[in-house]
Specification:
The complex is a heterodimer of chains A (85) and B (357).
Chain A: H1 2-15, H2 41-55, H3 62-68, H4 72-82
Chain B: E1 5-13, H1 49-52, H2 57-73, E2 80-84, H3 90-102, H4 110-116, H5 120-129, E3 134-138, H6 144-157, E4 164-171, H7 175-182, E5 211-218, E6 226-235, H8 239-252, E7 262-265, H9 278-282, E8 289-292, H10 294-297, H11 304-317, E9 325-327, E10 336-343, E11 347-355
Parallel strand pairs in B: 2-3, 2-4, 7-8, 7-10
Antiparallel strand pairs in B: 1-5, 1-6, 4-5, 6-11, 8-9, 10-11
Helix pairs in contact in B: 2-5, 3-4
Classes of the chains: A mainly alpha (85), B alpha/beta (357).
């Protein structure tokens, strides 16, 4: 699980081009949107693409997506349970 | 007859040192691979740090040029934003289309799609300046910037209020574009050094370029650098029609050819198209300086923007850089500049600029 979180953080940094940021700068439980990393709605779409491309996960229910994308920890947990790749 | 409009600020990011410098074109930049790329600037000075991370190079170039033009003009929020581009954000479009093929139209990144639209620079400029006024992007190949200027001219001619429009252009050059256009003879073979471009004017093809230029266009004469006295576009023209257009514009403005201080020609070194410029060399007297600019910025749809920026510098400094001059004239000052430019096959434009007096 810990390895998955580090990989996921690296993928988020690359996919969202978070310049100057390292995986250790992202807290597992910090909110990704709003106060935390300050990501926006386009970033959420980019992360949906990230989940689909890297883990074969397609989230079609917006409410479910909101829960999954709360933090790195919630994303990692969802990936572990639903990954197809 | 259309009333002249005024330019109160000009900014350009180009393959030359043209941005944020007191010594433009120093040193003169060149290349020997047939491509001239924009000299990058510190874009973080002009763009919101949260937004910049997602932006492509073209977006950063276009937005920074627009914001710098606003800064120079002292106008925080223009009445409208009008741009012209032949290619838009080419690189983003290439990435998006490449991903569509590679990923079989699934799981496509939204950012590349959003940014690849032609009007994304206008949108960002509007967001940054909170400008909710008129917003338009013209995609008319070699007439894109000219259409944007004409639109601003028409808008300013319709009002008696003092208004200011941010008008600009942007085009980027990519490796993919070079390869594709090479197949249809856009580029010279073998590739000459950019500064030797006109020594190879007996062969077809040119060198590729890119750039962005923005101007504050207004009906307010005070503090303006110069005015656009005439702007004419020609499509599927003959060299004789270009000649006749220049003669008509000068006559309408009661200017003799000898009184034109500087002519900036869009010679591209292409033997197929450069014949329209020959009369400008043979008909001008010792008074007029004749210059060229595509050996400095390369050939692209909106290179007229670079020429207009050069004209702005000439009005400001009352000098034409040596690198531009092809035939030096004796007129001591720069009060009138004529830009004659063509783009590849069939579009040309003639623009008469006058110093603000």
């Amino acid at each position: 699980m810990e390895d998955l979180k580090v990989t996921l953080k690296q993928q988020i940094i690359e996919s969202l081009n978070l310049q100057g940021m390292k995986p250790e700068d992202i807290d597992d439980n910090a909110p990704l949107f709003g106060e935390g990393l300050g990501l926006d709605s386009i970033d959420s779409l980019e992360m949906m693409v990230l989940l689909e491309r890297n883990y074969g996960i397609k989230i079609e229910d917006a409410r479910e997506g909101r829960k999954v994308l709360q933090s790195v920890a919630s994303m990692a947990e969802y990936i572990q349970q639903h990954r197809k790749i | 007859m259309m009333q002249p409009v005024y330019i109160s600020a000009a900014s350009a990011l180009s393959p030359q040192h043209s941005f944020g410098t007191d010594a433009p074109l120093q040193p003169v930049m060149s290349s020997d691979n047939g491509r001239l790329y924009v000299q990058d600037a510190d874009y973080s000075k002009f763009i919101n740090p949260v937004a910049i991370r997602r932006m492509s190079r073209m977006l950063k170039i276009g937005i920074s040029t627009g914001m710098d033009c606003l800064r120079q003009s002292g106008i925080e929020k223009p009445d409208g934003i009008i741009t012209g581009t032949g290619r838009g954000s080419m690189r983003d479009m290439e990435i998006f289309l490449g991903d569509m093929l590679r990923l079989k139209e699934e799981a496509l990144n939204p950012t590349y799609f959003i940014q690849s639209t032609y009007n994304s620079i206008n949108g960002w400029l509007a967001l940054q300046t909170k400008c909710t006024g008129y917003n338009q992007t013209y995609v008319h190949r070699g007439h894109s910037l000219e259409m944007a200027l004409l639109d601003a001219q028409l808008l300013l001619n319709e009002t008696t209020d003092k208004q200011h429009y941010l008008v600009g252009s942007f085009d980027e050059f990519t490796d993919e574009y070079f390869v594709v256009k090479n197949k249809i003879g856009y580029w010279k073979q073998p590739t000459p050094h950019s500064l030797d471009l006109y020594k190879h004017s007996d062969t077809p093809g040119s060198i590729g370029g890119e750039g962005s230029a923005f101007f504050m266009v207004t009906n307010e004469k005070e503090n303006a650098l110069f005015s656009i006295a005439a702007l004419q576009m020609l499509q599927d023209y003959t060299p004789a029609e270009v000649d006749a257009t220049i003669a008509r514009i000068l006559q309408e403005n009661k200017i003799l050819l000898r009184d034109v201080d500087v002519i900036l020609c869009g010679m591209s070194g292409d033997s197929r198209f450069d014949s329209i410029y020959k009369p400008l060399f043979s008909n001008t007297t010792v008074h007029t300086t004749v210059g060229a600019f595509k050996h400095l910025c390369g050939e692209y749809d909106t290179s007229t923007g670079f020429a207009m920026w050069l004209a702005a510098q000439a009005f400001k400094t009352q000098q034409v850089p040596d690198a531009v001059i092809q035939k030096k004239g004796i007129n001591p000052s720069v009060k009138t500049v004529l830009i004659v430019n063509h783009y590849i096959l069939n579009s040309a434009s003639v623009i008469l600029l006058k110093a603000n007096s």
